[in-house]
Amino acid sequence: MATVPLPANPEADARVRAVFDDIRATRKTDFINNLWRALAFDPPLLERTWADVKALMATPTLLDPLTKEMVYIAVSIANACSYCVHSHTAAARAKGMSDAMHAELLAIVALAARTNHLANGLQVPLDGAFDAAAR
Amino acid sequence: MATVPLPANPEADARVRAVFDDIRATRKTDFINNLWRALAFDPPLLERTWADVKALMATPTLLDPLTKEMVYIAVSIANACSYCVHSHTAAARAKGMSDAMHAELLAIVALAARTNHLANGLQVPLDGAFDAAAR
Amino acid sequence: MATVPLPANPEADARVRAVFDDIRATRKTDFINNLWRALAFDPPLLERTWADVKALMATPTLLDPLTKEMVYIAVSIANACSYCVHSHTAAARAKGMSDAMHAELLAIVALAARTNHLANGLQVPLDGAFDAAAR
Amino acid sequence: MATVPLPANPEADARVRAVFDDIRATRKTDFINNLWRALAFDPPLLERTWADVKALMATPTLLDPLTKEMVYIAVSIANACSYCVHSHTAAARAKGMSDAMHAELLAIVALAARTNHLANGLQVPLDGAFDAAAR
Amino acid sequence: MATVPLPANPEADARVRAVFDDIRATRKTDFINNLWRALAFDPPLLERTWADVKALMATPTLLDPLTKEMVYIAVSIANACSYCVHSHTAAARAKGMSDAMHAELLAIVALAARTNHLANGLQVPLDGAFDAAAR
Amino acid sequence: MATVPLPANPEADARVRAVFDDIRATRKTDFINNLWRALAFDPPLLERTWADVKALMATPTLLDPLTKEMVYIAVSIANACSYCVHSHTAAARAKGMSDAMHAELLAIVALAARTNHLANGLQVPLDGAFDAAAR
Q1: How far does the CA of residue C43 sit from the closest CA of chain E (Å)?
Q2: Residue D80 and residue F79: Cβ atoms within 8 Å?
Q3: Same domain, yes or no: B29 and B50
Q4: At what angle do helices E82-94 and D99-122 cross, to 10 degrees?
Q5: Domain count, chain E
Q6: ipTM of this predicted complex?
């Protein structure tokens, strides 16, 4: 169950309808996943969120689409967002992530978490060599 | 300041010396950053940590080296590990991450954090379409 | 499922009964939500937790009740506590949070998460102007 | 030290200059804090971030300005963003947060963190009464 | 539902079979919990994860087995890993954790979270007395 | 720098003085660390925080004092509270934590973080065997 009612007919609202139409056209699918249905309870929030997701994740940019999905999954795991891990793993799979790539991604995320906790436990001081100003 | 004393002469210990030699040979540099110096307070922990970092991050695997560093940075940001953000940003830079790639990485990490918090705030229910068993 | 059995008849214990009576009287409702039922497995932990929640959240203080619930929701989202997001969203609704206020709260939480990740990714140094000692 | 060089003369870039001018005009101050100076390394990221911060935090909306800052602080504490805690505490102070309000905010954030950890440790099941669909 | 299909017959793979046999022999039980079944989608990841869990958690070391499980639970709560909280609470119970010990563990975790948020909200500066180099 | 001014003479306030006296008497030391000095900006918050820390961490309870400090460190690492990691590592050292115990604690915390991220990445479903109601 969600903290807002998932509307039965969200596209009765013209602003929601426009966003959903754009999601379908951009992603070339009729499937609108529940994040967008939940956000439909507030059309301005829905519009702004989709605009930014579209600009970065559904538009060609410098990084390739699969790399972007893997970074997204990594953050979602660390932030313990169950919904986001599921939705972006499905997206990465659709963009070509194989079992072996998935396993390696998880291994790197887990290794990073491990050394994050070691470094935070040791409170390791910064090395001068990391200073961006000295590059 | 760290929670363990950074040893003045860590390589007096033969096990530490062997790990540091391997770090230098693997990375083709004389620079040993402070995480390894701090871990030298316990040679077995140092050995195990380096073995796993080497196997995944300093050995050719399925994902390319820069993608792996960017995933590592993403997790480190979400886990608020200041040291790790610095060390892996420096590593990513050394492997070719440009200003524009860095900016895009940060933009994706920030977008993921934003939708992570939206989805956790809305408690969005999972879509059946995400079910891996149904692929 | 919980990590402790939810007791079938928690109020058989006199200390639990006293806390539950106070929850009902304070909140003017017969409804005791599951957090309290689960905490009933250890009456002292139940008593201390309720005493502190009551003092801050069920007693008039400096901040108004709805602001307090919104701050509570914000923390619960960032800490990925699904139960707490649900329970405090329900409480905020009961205290007058409208759809538009809920949407704005989520937008601010998401914006904060976004700039938190940007600032942690950039490792932005503190400005001297923020120094409380200089106010 | 930051992970990007803080530019000596960021306003040599016309896009950066335009954003900084807008920050000064909007906030009615000459002070540009380091987050914006750091973001100046990528003008598009700077523009998008400021546009969203301005729309939500520097424009009248439904919630009052001080409530918004307190929610922002709460998220920043939970996400362990040191820079953001400092900058938004300074902003909340400038908008009228007294010592007593600050103390109460911290007390609520700490109480929420405490029950977040209790609920996640107990894995408390959701109550049907929280269902938004049943409101 | 998981992000990988839980294989119907994971032990058809000889490497998976060897790990599962070792889990059964080490733990003296036929029960293989779902984490290992899910990891079976990538035998090398399964092997490395089990090797490290076995070395630290299923082998006598300096700290006693129950203390290790309680530390594990504490981290899992703070990282909001629902599965891990359940599995390690069950393990701690099997190793002798009573209701009263469980309640005290949760009380300490909650107290730590509370002062973590207070200290991060106050941005308390380090005391020189904590310096490990001065011990 | 902190988000509140550290008062030059906090014990001029009688309530602060009483708490500081109790800290000194309880801990048998003249040293008052900065968390308490910072909390002195709001005597009620100082009183409540110290009362709860004293009851759980400075009073004999079921768990031994060193185990309690190690659990506290584990949570503080996962929550990225730099101050708390330092203060509780110093406390654990004072209560007898050796280098080897410290290293093992960090290894367990890091292992837990690693499997937390694996389980959250795989979204492993709960095993029925973990059900507390079935014990």
Answers
A1: 9
A2: yes
A3: yes
A4: 60
A5: 2
A6: 0.97
